[in-house]
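Reminder to self: tokens first, then the designed residues, so the page reads top to bottom the way the pipeline ran.
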């Protein structure tokens, strides 16, 4: 069934209205409107340089809009103080990047536990949660290994465990499968699908790959700073 998403839908965890973002004289985003429903997987596609990462970072409050608004659960990100925006990112948003961005000096368990430790969670609880997530994503057998000894798939699954350890509402993933072969990319995408359905996480994925995008509930295609098309997957 095709779903209709209106501006006033309360189920939207993120709403973007008339978002503009410039870098110098370059207008990268030129009026983006978007509703992201809770529990959906949204894929953001488009040519290199089309502003996919910029849109992701604006939605996550890492970059500020030049014009327009981004709302998280109805609250305008522009109304957060710098500190509360940092707190929001630490508690409600999980981030996954193309190369995992793990801390090279720390073993898998500590990488996963780190965001919890930084939030003041006691060591014992942080490591317990890290172990649980390591098992859930399938890296429990490399829990003591350093990142450089991991496969690309293990690195990304560790990054997903680290993002999930804080129990975020939204996961922002920028080309999370960009450095993986198709078998590992499939495993990572299946993990996102499972997280979205079992834990009702909202997942926003920037990707180049049509194969990756098929796992999404909704796809948007960016072109020339605007959403050229938006397609919602129809239920079987
Ligand atoms: P995509 O992720 O679709 O490849 P980006 O959002 O990374 O595209 O970048 C869009 C455009 O904005 C590119 O032309 C890029 O060079 C430019 N850009 C991105 N970030 C910055 C920045 N911090 N400073 C200046 N230009 C930037
Ligand atoms: Mg990018």
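Designed residues (236 positions):
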């Amino acid at each position: 069934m095709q779903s209709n998403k209106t501006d006033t839908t309360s189920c939207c965890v993120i709403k973007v209205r008339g978002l503009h973002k410039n870098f110098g004289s370059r207008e990268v985003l030129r009026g983006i409107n978007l509703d992201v429903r809770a529990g959906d997987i949204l894929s953001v596609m488009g040519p290199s340089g089309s502003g996919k990462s910029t849109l992701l970072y604006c939605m996550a409050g890492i970059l500020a809009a030049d014009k327009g608004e981004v709302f998280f659960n109805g609250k305008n990100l522009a109304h957060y103080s710098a500190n509360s925006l940092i707190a929001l990112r630490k508690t409600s948003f999980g981030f996954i990047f193309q190369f995992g961005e793990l801390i090279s000096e720390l073993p898998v368990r500590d990488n996963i536990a780190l965001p919890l430790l930084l939030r003041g969670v006691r060591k014992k609880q942080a490591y317990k949660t890290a172990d649980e997530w390591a098992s859930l994503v399938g890296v429990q057998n490399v829990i003591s290994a350093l990142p450089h000894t991991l496969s690309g798939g293990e690195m990304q699954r560790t990054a997903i465990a680290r993002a999930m350890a804080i129990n975020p509402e939204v996961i922002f993933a920028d080309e999370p499968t960009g450095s993986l072969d198709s078998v590992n990319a499939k495993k990572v995408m299946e993990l996102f699908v499972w997280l979205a359905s079992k834990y009702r996480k909202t997942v926003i994925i920037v990707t180049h790959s049509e194969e990756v995008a098929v796992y999404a509930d909704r796809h948007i295609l960016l072109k020339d700073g605007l959403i050229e098309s938006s397609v919602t997957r129809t239920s079987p």
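The two ends are 8 Å apart (CA to CA).
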